[in-house]
Amino acid sequence: MRCPCGLPADYDDCCGRFHRGAAAPTPELLMRSRYTAFAVGDSAYLAATWHPSTRPADVEATGRWLRLEVLSARGGLLDTEGVVHFRARSLDGVVEE
C-alpha cells in the first residue's frame, strides 16, 4: 500500500516503520507519520506522539483523510525542535497549521 503521507514509498517502508516503534528522525517525518496515523486509524501512535500538555483525554484517529501537503519545514536530524507548516485535506474539510 502506498503511504498516505505523500512520499513516494510504501507504507511499511515509510511511516509504517515509525508506527512499529522506530523514532521519526525529523519534525517533518514525525508530522507525516502522525497524519498517516490519522489516515490508517492508529490512535495508539497518535496518543504516544502527542505532547501531554495538548493531548486530548481520548485520542481517536477518525475521518477520511485525502491528502497532505507540507508547505514548509524547519528542523533536521540534529535539532531537538522544529516547525512544520502543512495543509491536510479530509472529507470534513481542510486543516492548516
SSE layout and pairing:
Layout: H1 15-19, H2 27-40, H3 43-49, E1 65-74, E2 83-90, E3 93-96
Antiparallel strand pairs: 1-2, 2-3
Describe this structure in words.
This protein is 27% helix and 23% strand. The protein contains three helices and three strands, in the order H-H-H-E-E-E. The chain has helices at 15-19, 27-40, 43-49, and strands at 65-74, 83-90, 93-96. Strand 1 and strand 2 (83-90) form a beta hairpin. The longest helix has 14 residues, at 27-40. The model has no long low-confidence stretch (mean pLDDT 91).
**Share in helix:** 25-40%
Count of distinct strands: 3
Low confidence ranges: none
> Helix-strand pattern, N to C?
HHHEEE
**Terminal Cα span:** 27 Å
Q: What is the count of DSSP helices, taking H or I runs of 4+ residues?
A: 3
Strand content: 15-25%
Whole-number mean pLDDT: 91
Provide the structure class. Answer: alpha+beta
The best one-word shape is: globular
**Strand order within the widest beta sheet:** 1-2-3
Summarize the biggest pleated sheet: 3 strands, antiparallel
Radius of gyration: 13 Å
